[in-house]
Amino acid sequence: xxxxxxxxxxxxxxxxxxxxxxxxxxxxxxxxxxxxxxxxxxxxxxxxxxxxxxxxxxxxxxxxxxxxxxxxxxxxxxxxxxxxxxxxxxxxxxxxxxxxxxxxxxxxxxxxxxxxxxxxxxxxxxxxxxxxxx
Length: 134
Hints:
Layout: E1 19-25, E2 31-37, H1 39-48, E3 52-55, E4 60-63, E5 72-79, E6 86-92, E7 108-112, E8 117-121, H2 129-132
Parallel strand pairs: 1-6
Antiparallel strand pairs: 1-2, 3-4, 5-6, 7-8
């Protein structure tokens, strides 16, 4: 094993070789999105200085913004106390992290009670997704 990737061994990867990742906006501290990384994705993130995730649906590396142009410049990478969750502090290009055209993927808020609750969209669509993904 090369010295340059030895630090990857500290991460507790799940049975599929993945670790959950939270992308948090530098400055505002807004949680922008949740994704997964494998070893290659985390190593590429460090090399590029931009977020690279593992797409479980596509089964391949996914450089955030490769289609939309909404990249995430990584300023800080942290590992939680259990060493099984990664936090990225990012600068979000274009102010849009979500494929729905919103600032954050966490735009649905629960309102109501257990017996009479619903999920309500509380953040606006900033850009029509049809204009982003062609």
